[in-house]
Amino acid sequence: MRTSALDCHAAWLKERFKRHAGNADVVRQELISELGITVSLRTIQRALQPYRQDLRADFGERLIEIGGAKMGIYLFVATFGASRRLHVRAFRNERQQSWFDGIESAFREFGGTTKEVLFDNARALVERHNGATREVVFNAKLTAFAKHWRFTPRACAPYRARTKGKTENGVGYVKKNAIAGRRFATFEELEAHLVQWTRDVADTHVHGTTGEPPITRFERDEAAALNSIDGVPPFQTMREVSRKVQSDCRIEFDSNGYWVPWKLIGEHLTVVVADGALRISHAGKEVARHELLTGKHGQAIDPAHFEGVAGADRKPVLASRSCGPPAPDGASPAHSFSRHRLTCISRSHRRNDCDHYRNTKRLPEVAGDGSRI
Predict the structure, then answer these.
(1) Domain-by-domain residue ranges, the chain?
(2) Residue 334: which of 317, 313, 355 has the closest Cα?
(3) For residues 201 and 218, what is the distance between their CA atoms, to the nearest angstrom?
(4) What is the distance in angstroms between the CA of the first residue and the CA of the last residue of the chain?
(5) What would the pLDDT profile of 252-306 be if each residue is shown by its tens digit?
(6) Where does residue 19 fall: left (phi above 0), alpha (psi -120 to 50 degrees), or beta otherwise?
(7) 10 Å Cβ neighbour count for 335?
(8) Smallest Cα–Cα separation from 51: which of 88, 20, 87, 86?
(9) What is the DSSP letter of 7?
(10) b vs e for 142-167, b when ≥16 Cβ sit within 10 Å of the residue's Cβ?
């Protein structure tokens, strides 16, 4: 029996779907016992799909020519369960923050949240998923994100092509239709193209499974059922992490380096990111502030962080056997001193944190009198 044969029982199916919280197997059992209709579980799942409020989210990587060079771009695709309506974003990575930004923008675009969001088993989101017991342990940050937006996270069953395929079909469609054969002058041009393509093509084409344009089905069956997001602020208004100062006076954040006062080498600092700025504090006191860098491998350096250090005034410093040759005239203080001499001092005293700090602190005095460091 095909799903269409159950159309005359749509009201019954909808009532049982709500009664049993979407458990398709229980609905199938009652369909047999009460109505005498025997169908497969898969048939029931297809019949109940219009009543589900879920969003399926996935990423797919694609090489795209931007500004004359091939770049690896990560395409985020969110698909509404019943209507198959898409929301597409382009990112430069597939980190947890990109997942959150993509899902939030989907909620904003469509004016509400779904009851469930189905994910692939991405490491940024899922700590553990036991294929035999179906036990899923989500990342603590994802759990907080889901609570903030009031949805239940679900993970695809590992290696189950039928479940995973639903999330990946949208990605494949975007790659083959929106991206294939196209090149863009800038990343912003790519983003604008995805918005236009979603509105003019993806929303309006007749879907092969539903037989309707996604926008039509969404407005009729899904839009009114979404949970309101009025007054709900973005989840990531602020990020707070802890970082240890490396031996060259810097901390790492999102693949970029940010320099801090040299006396804090080896210390653990609190890093707060908000409003495009990165604020670094130690023991409750702000010790550095930098503009948040974009891209990767950038360096934010403040010369004031090297005050009191021999060689930080761009003058040559007497070399030692442990630290190699002296800094050349005109060398950058951040690179000629911090990344070379402080690394040597830090390594020399790594066995004892107290000695490490004490010897690093008196470095200007030792270096200034010409003795060996």
Answers:
(1) 3-50, 53-225, 239-368
(2) 313
(3) 15
(4) 85
(5) 998 899 999 999 999 999 998 876 789 999 998 999 999 888 777 899 998 888 8
(6) alpha
(7) 13
(8) 20
(9) G
(10) beebbebbebebbbbebeeeebbebb
Q: Tell me the one-letter amino acid at 204.
A: T
Where do runs of H (alpha helix) occur along the chain? 10-19, 24-35, 41-48, 96-110, 140-149, 161-173, 187-197, 214-217, 333, 343-348, 353-361, 363-368
| Angle in degrees, 0-180, between the axes of helices 10-19 and 41-48, rounded to the nearest 10 | 90
Length of the chain in residues, anyone?
373
Which residue ranges in the chain fall short of pLDDT 50? Answer: 1-3, 160-168, 314-373
The answer as to CATH 3.30.420.10 being correct for domain 53-225 is yes
Q: Cα separations (Å) of 74 from 63, 125, 226?
A: 9, 16, 27
DSSP-derived 3-state class of residue 336: helix
CA-to-CA distance for 49 and 153, rounded, in angstroms? Answer: 17
| Residue 229: predicted pLDDT | 92
List all residues 6 or more positions away from 105 whose beta carbon is below 8 Å from its beta carbon. Answer: 87, 89
Report the C-alpha gap between 190 and 65 in whole angstroms. Answer: 10
Distance CA 199, CA 91 (A): 19
Q: Give CA–CA dist 104/113, Å, rounded.
A: 9
CA distance linking residue 264 with residue 280, whole number of Å: 11
Closest CA to 335 of 368, 299, 370: 299
